[in-house]
Amino acid sequence: MNQRPVDLLIRGASELATPLGSTARVGRELGALRIVPRGAVAVDAGRIVAAGPEEELARDHAPRATLDAEGGTLVPGFVDAHTHPIFATTREDEFELRTRGATYAEIAAAGGGILSTTRGVRAASREELEGRLVRHLDRFLELGTTTVEAKTGYGLSLEAELKCLEVLASVRARHAVDLVPTFLGAHDFPEEYRADKQAYVDLLVREMLPRVARDRLAEYCDVFTEGIAFSLEQSRRILGTARELGLGLRLHVDQLTPLGGAELAAELGAASADHLEHVSERGIEALAARGVVAVLCPVVPLFLRQEREAPGRRMVDAGVPIAISTDFNPGSCYLQSMSEVISWAALRYRLSAAECLTAATLNAACSLGRGAQTGSLEPGKRADVLVLDVPNHRHLAYELGRNPVRHVVRGGRVAFSRAVVR
Ligand code: NIG
Ligand code: FE
User: Fold this and answer.
1) Which residue out of 91, 92, 106, 114 has the highest number of ligand 1 atoms within 8 Å of its CB and is therefore the one to mutate?
2) Which of 223, 332, 334, 341 to mutate to test the pocket of ligand 1 (most atoms within 8 A of CB)?
């Protein structure tokens, strides 16, 4: 019998669980996983060549190496579609102020918030920012995240934003995590433009965005559309320019107040509309009609001690493609674990573990234009595979507060293995 030689066979699993396809799953399809008891994955030249019952894969392939899953579960590498990982200082003081009753907007108005992180980033050297970013990415990888969208947004000047984008480009070229760079110069108005906000929008549109696009430093442009940040009109102008320059669009919308940001994201045909705690019914319908991915951040309201959360179940039932993410940043969510996000999305949005897994892999990849490359365990896709120390995929939602990741295979290479004490 002819056996195909392959680089790696991941075997010994109790279950393989994966969404299917290269487009975002909606409605009932969100939870339609392929589940293979005792499933295995064959990998060659960095790609998946087969995923299915171990018996068949072992019969048909001659692996040069094997990875023993020891009764664990195989799922696609997590895709975190919304993070802010480039910063130099942390804000545990604000966390404590909130436990004593202060709100996010009050802290920002008092000079804390985004602008406090901006002071740290402006003062930091490139080397320091690189070192910190690498440490954050190492942690993402340990936690099973193989693709990370990374926003700037704590520089807020041409010079400091370029510094952050160049740090991203340099780390991207040498780290195992696949980084997707997003320019978020419109995260807040910096101190020196507080009295003339229009002038900062002009700077973004006339100087910053053209430079970012010319030097191909970002794939996406994001805006914080909010009462305390950029208005609908300002957001429309910034994002319209970004689109003309060839950048994809992402938006922070309807997070703290209902501004109609979801409707704007749909109008612009954005790749994603993120947060959405205050989304309106019209906004939900508009996102569904345009197929804009709603990137939800279930731990953020908890971290900010906000009552209101995004209507996750309602959006799924209305046909909005949803993804789930950490929103990792020093202010509103110091969290990097996608397995934790899966648990909280299940509990807060009333989603099944299967729905959460699709939202944390394939749908997140689709929101980043990477649905054909990663997000599922299927032949032809990049071999981004997790070996989890759980008996089935349902434990991903069920178990809180533990990193279930045993091995991370990224592009066919074992990029992380947990040290085991026996
Ligand atoms: O996604 N909402 C705006 N931006 C971040 C928070 C940034 C910060 O507080 O540093 C967010 O929640
Ligand atoms: Fe964010």
Assistant:
1) 114
2) 332
- Ligand 2 centroid–CA 373 distance in Å is 24
> Both 250 and 114 in a single domain?
yes
Range of the domain at 97: 78-367
- Residue 23's pLDDT is what? 98
Ligand 2 geometric centre to CA of 253 (Å) = 10
Asked if 211 and 162 count as a contact pair (C-beta separation under 8 A), the reply is yes
Contacts of residue 62, Cβ cutoff 8 Å, sequence gap at least 6 = 3, 4, 5, 6
Residue 357 is predicted with a pLDDT of 99
Percent of the chain with pLDDT over 70: 100
CB of residue 114 inside a 6 A radius of ligand 1: yes
**Shared-domain flag, residues 215 and 293:** yes
State pLDDT tens for residues 175-188. Answer: 999 999 999 999 99
- Rounded to 10 deg, the angle between the 158-172 and 126-142 helix axes is 50
pLDDT reported for residue 420: 80
On whether residue 84 sits in a domain, the answer given is: yes
For ligand 1, whether the C-beta of 117 sits within 6 Å is yes
Q: For position 403, which CATH number holds?
A: 2.30.40.10
**What tokens were used for 400?**
């809180």
Read off the DSSP letter of residue 205: I
Question: Could you tell me if 67 and 22 lie in one domain?
Answer: yes
The reply to whether ligand 1 has any atom less than 6 angstroms from the CB of 107 is no
Same domain for 209 and 354, yes or no, is yes
The list of the chain residues with pLDDT below 50 reads: none
CATH number of the domain that residue 272 is part of:
3.20.20.140
pLDDT score of 147:
99
Which residues does 244 contact at the CB level (< 8 Å), separation at least 6? none
How many CA atoms are closer than 13 Å to the CA of 122, on its beta-carbon side? 13
Q: Atom of ligand 1 at shortest distance to CA of 330?
A: 10
Sheet of 78-80, strand order: 78-80, 145-151, 178-186, 220-224, 248-253, 272-275, 293-296, 322-324
The total of other beta-carbon atoms located within 10 Å of residue 174's CB is: 8
Nearest to 79 by CA among 385, 361, 275, 357: 361
Question: Is residue 300 lining ligand 1, measured as CB closer than 6 Å?
Answer: yes
Question: Are residues 174 and 246 located together in one domain of the fold?
Answer: yes
Ligand 1 mean position, distance from CA 83 (Å) = 9
Residues, the chain = 422
Instruction: Tell whether 163 and 40 lie within a shared domain.
Output: no
